[in-house]
Structure formats: C-alpha cells, structure tokens
Amino acid sequence: METVAIPQLKGKLIDPQHPEYHVARKVYNGMIDKHPALIAQCDTVEDVVAMVNYARETSLLLAIKGGGHNGAGLGVCDDGLVIDLSGMKRIEVNAEKQTVWAEGGCLLKDLDAATHPYGLAVPTGINGTTGLAGLTLGGGLGYLTRHCGLTIDNLLEATVVLADGRVVKASASENEDLFWAIRGGGGNFGVITSFLFHAHPISTVVAGPILYELEDAKEIMQWYRSYIKDAPDEINGWFAFLTVPPGPPFPEHLHLKKMCGILWCYSGPTEDADKLLDPIRQMKTPALDLVGPMPVPVLQGLFDPLYPPGMQWYWKADYVNELSDEVIDIHCQHAAQLPTMLSTMHLYPINGAAARVRNQDTAWNYRDATWAMVIVGVDPDPANGALITSWAKNYWQDLHPYGAGGAYINFMMEEGEDRVKATYGDNYDRLVAVKAKYDPTNLFRVNQNIKPV
C-alpha cells in the first residue's frame, strides 16, 4: 500500500512522543486509559476533512472527541486516530431569530455563557462540562426537557463531514435522511463540525434540590411517579439517591448522609413559581429545601465542582415506564448500599414536550417511556473501581427485568449490538439503511455502533 502523508493542519498533531500526549489522550472518565497512535486537534472544518480522509486512506481506527464526556470513553481509541474538536468552540447567537450556531467542540457551559446574555437558553443536559456534540447526537436530556423537548427537538441544522470527506448540511430540507439519523443516532454518520439550534427565551429559573430522609424514599417515589406524569410542562424534576457532600451549601448535620431527593427546575414565569412549587413543598416536610431563583448557567454548573474530570465512572442505564411498589423496594435496597460518596442513581423524566414528538420522527426511539434511569458508580480512587462497578451492575441487574427494553445511549457503556438494537427498536433498520448510504465501510464505529449491513 502506498504511504499516505500525514496532512498539515491549522491545529496540532500529537503523537505518543509529544510532550502533551498524555494530557491530550485523557477523557472525562478516569477509568478509560487508551493510547491512540495520533491525536489531531482540529481548528477548522478543513482540518477535520483532512483527517477523515487520512483515516479512511490508511484504514486507521477513528474516534471523534468533542467534550470527551462519554462514559464509555468513546472519544478515544487504542492505536488509532482521534479527531479532537475541543479547539472548535466558536458560537454565534442571533437574538432576533432566537437561533444559536455552535461548533462541535463546545461544552454546555460555553453555549450557556453565549446565550444567557441575550436571555436565551438551548435545552441541553445537567452538567456544564458535558460536550455539546455528544449530548446532542445522543438525544439531549436535561433540565428543560419537559418544557422545550430534547436537544435534538431544537436542532435546526448541522454541518457534517462524511466518511468520503464531503462536507454537507443536514436539515429538514437538505439531506433529510441524515438529519433524521443524527437526531439520536450518535456519531455513526459523520463528524458534526457545527450545529444550529433554536433557543428559548429562558434566562432565570426557579430550581434546586429538595432532600428527604432515606427512610422516606418509598413514600417520595410513590408520590413522584404520579405527580411527574401530569405536571405542567414548565416543571421538571429528576429523582436521585445520593450522599450529601461535606460542604456548603449543605448544613453540617447532613454531611455524608445517604438521602433521596428531587432536583426541581421551574422554567415558567418566575412570579408563578410559588403557586406550582408550594404543593410540592407541602407534600412532605423535607430535610432540606434549596430551591430558589438562579440563572440557567448556574443551574447547569451546579455539579461541576463535585464531579471534576478524571474520576472513575461506571454507568448502567435503562428506560423505565413504571415505578411499581416492587421496583421502588429494589431501588431502596440498593440506595442503602451506595458504595461511595459520589455514586448515585437518577431518574430523568422524558414526558411533557419531549413525548409529543413521535418515535419515528427522529432516531431517538423512547418518547413513550416515562424516565431514563442511570446508575453510576463514581469515585476519585482507582482502587475503588471494582467496588463501584459491582454495585452498579448488581443494582441494574435487579431492575432490568422491569425496564422498557433499551437505554439512553449517552448513559451506556460498551454493551454490545443487542443493547444498541434494543435502544433503537423500530427505528433500527432505518438507521442501518442511512448508515449504509453515508458510511458503508463503517469508518465511524467507535460509538454505540450501528453496522451498515
């Protein structure tokens, strides 16, 4: 085979001898320890095209890194090429049209910082350190889901570098099949170098956690399972089991205590917040109520100091339709055994605005589920890796028979083809056809992979 010259980039090429290599190869999950042959820190679309062509022509395994936040570490690979978009963070806000153009290396906190001065917000996730590209391509579930839909429901257009090196637009009027597929189909179809989103006039929300004693968890979950199904769209609340961090704003008597809670976000008119939140507060006296007005960027970054990059993470997930008393008992049993301070379980509601989009309208296939559940074992110490992994697996194994079948791909580890098929359900065959059209050789396969056959 003829030798292919490594392209010259405006960005930086990093090999294992480069002094920045061991920093550049790291991703958010400290449990991931992969050693690529080459890392291309791209600055332009032309850089991305050059490196896609290089990977294809040399048959190099190719991984795409946006924010590097993926739990399974799918932004990096061993012995292959990593296209790193983290230098591509340009953002343009059109306040009049309520649109935001953002490059693929942006983090959620970058997007929030750009839109907030205009009194706008794009519905995204729950951590400012999350990469915008990965979150969007997986669906985009977060604080504003019930009010504004998933992130993909607010995506207007994307610029995509295809496996053959072409640069195309994907929208409702251009390459419609590709546009359908990238809205939930992950990184299977190309490198997304930029996104155009619809933004909403949301600036200040009334939000924060309300915590309860762990012994009250069954009662709280029984109330929550009914309440959230019929709550107004402007109310979002995700349930969690947690250990209270030992510092402000938490009072000292709660430090390191295992508790349950709901992280509320009301995104309607601030003056109407108490009318909707007071019945929640009166349902049961909480151990702690930290709900109050805050800017969207503050809410998005609440957990960033608690979960800095480099910790050990192990994820298990399912979609959930119902929380029966039997299921709640299983939850409570495992919550009492939270293995480390940062390990947790979250239930994110999918209903409201997100459920009014049909499953077949985007690749994201679980609009009719009520929650996306994630169980995460987390700890800074690699010595606790086996502990947090076994806890998460055991918890999930006990609950999985009661799940809806698939899982939110942004919450999955590398779990195999059957889990990917279950996640896309009736949309899977259509995704295979789009994959075969745009990436017939499966160049983009370091992901929750949809094979083009």
From TrEMBL:
Name the domain of life.
Answer: Bacteria
The GO terms this record gives for MF are:
FAD binding; oxidoreductase activity
What keywords are annotated for this sequence in UniProt? FAD, Flavoprotein, Oxidoreductase
Record-annotated FAD-binding PCMH-type domain positions = 32-202
Q: Which cofactor does it need?
A: FAD
Family under the similarity heading: Belongs to the oxygen-dependent FAD-linked oxidoreductase family.
Protein's recorded name: FAD-binding protein
Organism field? Spirosoma endbachense
